[in-house]
Amino acid sequence: MSHDDFPTDDPAVVTCGLPYANGDLHIGHLRTYVGGDVYSRALERLGQETAFVSGSDMHGTPVAVNAEQEGVSPEQFALDWHERYAETFPKFNVEFDNYGHTHDETNTEITQRLVRDLDDAGHLYEKEIMVAYDPVDDQYLPDRYVEGTCPYCGAHARGDECDEGCQRHLEPGEVEEPESTITGNPAEYRERTHQFFAVSEFADYLSDFLDRLEGTSNARNQPREWIEQGLQDWCITRDMDWGIDLPGENPQDLVLYVWVDAPIEYISSTKQYTERVGADAFDWEAAWKEGASDDHPEGGEIVHVIGRDIIQHHTIFWPAMLEATDHAEPRAVMASGFVTLDGKGFSTSRDRAVWADEYLDEGFHPDPLRYYLATNGGFQQDVDFSWEKFAERVNTELVGTVGNFLYRSLLFAHRNYEDGPDADAPSDDVAARIDEAVDDVAAAVNDYSVRALGDAVTDLARYGNEYIQRNEPWKLVDEEPAEAEQVIYDCVALAKAIAVLFEPLAPEKSERLWAQLGEPGSVHDATVEAAREGPAGDLREPTELFEQIEDERVEALNEKLEARVAESESGDDGDEESETGGDGSDDDETATTDDTDMTDIEPLSDDRISFDEFQELDIRVGRIEDAVGIDGADDLLKLTVDLGAETRTIVAGLKQLHDVDDLPDTKVIVLANMEKAELFGVESNGMVLAAGEDADLLTTYEGAGPGTKVK
């Protein structure tokens, strides 16, 4: 692995967190897989040798429980969902080079070999631990068979994770006041012998690894707190029948914890890809094994695209396993935020979600959704989906900007030049603008920003609209035909560049555009160098790439969704947990959060203040100059804010809600005469104002500078 800018000479592997084979996919899940597919395609556009792999996570307690409820074996239950996922992803143009699953022969073999290597190297040991046991039902209760209270923050927690509170991974026996999720009986703890991986021995390595790690800032910053608090060794076995057997002597018939074999599927899936295409096309060992290749002694460029709720697994446990077994460490981890629906968490139990199949059944093309999910906010930020917002982005950006430029320029070219306009090369200004767009795409890849990939294309199309409008070739055709032909040639050159650069986000639409341009071969095989080349094909009569979504259609979609949710909720007591599922992760089940009903807005206060009291509030425009995390605080940032007359330090709870790297230069509204307070040893001198639980920062829309008073 290198840390050189992409493209590099080392093979790259892009992975997506494994979907858990336990239920339907909705658009919240798709955010991670679309993000991974976009990033993988963008690497290939730069000329990077890349394999894009994933697979279904087949093991764990929810599969076993749900299979029993349906009267089938866990293997059959999980395989049915695996096959369904394998059919669904291509419908959204998510094209894995290999999509396997954790129960296949390859992953079983590699997992058991890697665990034996850990044992041979002295990193595993046996330990007597307290395991939850249901004395009424007479069975041990691993992981999700247990619920109780988190010992760290006091929130309600699952047996292996504080999913509603501090998000910490929990070891067997840690959850307090345990109950069986099968029977509801109070559980008790009994001693059992289990295998542990000595993760604590790798604390120094992991700290250095995080210094090297690239990707989103949440994936780099969050794990540091866990290391500073002291790493606990990791129990890697469970009392279950369903899973991969612990290799070697196994008198208690233990299976490996699902989080052992799940990430190993990344290696297994890459190996299966090599077995299909040959090592000359892609060498899985050169990518994953240190020292396996003289040309790639440190392995390849490993990029994990995951949901933010599984950061700990990918930045603590997994790299420690890789380091202990002489495998290449990840170069980057991109951790996405969740997707909400009209400001509310997705709820699969209440059918409040836009399902993947539902989206397609409504007749929508997959590429507009890909564009929306990839570009609507930073990758690590939560994204709110509504049909109104979706329609607005499609209508203004895809139809009004990209589609408008492509159709008007190609239609004019087709009607006025039989074989396409002829010129020696694009004009200097247009060539320079295309070069700038190519540079923007390369920068987006190296910044791990799928949003910036989309911005590079829409900005180029916006330039194209301005260019054709400014030069008015329809007026030049008769009086200055050579100049008119150069202008239209430039527009076709811009269209070709858009086809190449837009391929990662809208692969099917870009291929259609490529055909309209009459270019040879497939746009999927074109690199960014093709974007710099002038058009060479015979133009075909263009058709519009994107369709307008009318207001009436949005209203009908909303009515259908609201009716379905109302029907589902009429049969429950309203106390269920909501499942956001917006991570697309390989966790044991879909991530859950509180089902916050954003329609239950707090009533307006009847307590009024006078104008004079309002005047006493010193509210100013500020500009954030710097933002850094505060040691020991999960949510707090230390902000340096320019208030015009002076610069102040303000503590704000924004760490988990905003991309920290994006905050500098952001204009904010500050209550300047707030009493000073000390938080985690940092004096806060003011308050940054924000709206709602997601801390939507208040700002200005014009040029008010730092220090301007809000009246």
UniProtKB/TrEMBL annotation:
Superkingdom of the organism of origin: Archaea
Stated role: Is required not only for elongation of protein synthesis but also for the initiation of all mRNA translation through initiator tRNA(fMet) aminoacylation.
Residues binding ATP, per UniProt: 348
Full protein name: Methionine--tRNA ligase
Compartment list: Cytoplasm
CDD domains recorded: Anticodon_Ia_Met, MetRS_core, tRNA_bind_EcMetRS_like
Subunit structure of this chain's protein: Homodimer.
Keywords: Aminoacyl-tRNA synthetase, ATP-binding, Cytoplasm, Ligase, Metal-binding, Nucleotide-binding, Protein biosynthesis, RNA-binding, tRNA-binding, Zinc
Pfam families to which the protein is assigned, alphabetical: Anticodon_3, tRNA-synt_1g, tRNA_bind
Catalyzed chemical reaction(s): tRNA(Met) + L-methionine + ATP = L-methionyl-tRNA(Met) + AMP + diphosphate
E.C. designation(s): 6.1.1.10
Main location: cytoplasm
Intervals of motif 'HIGH' region: 19-29
Species per Swiss-Prot/TrEMBL record: Halorubrum xinjiangense
Compositional bias ranges of the Acidic residues kind: 569-604
Xref: PANTHER family: METHIONINE--TRNA LIGASE, METHIONINE--TRNA LIGASE, CYTOPLASMIC
Gene Ontology terms, MF aspect: ATP binding; metal ion binding; methionine-tRNA ligase activity; tRNA binding
Annotated ranges, domain TRNA-binding: 613-711
Matches recorded under PROSITE patterns: AA_TRNA_LIGASE_I, TRBD
Family: Belongs to the class-I aminoacyl-tRNA synthetase family. MetG type 1 subfamily.
Segments traversing the membrane: none
Entry cofactors: Zn(2+)
Cofactor binding, per record: Binds 1 zinc ion per subunit.
One biological process term in Gene Ontology: methionyl-tRNA aminoacylation
Cellular component annotations (GO), alphabetically ordered: aminoacyl-tRNA synthetase multienzyme complex; cytosol
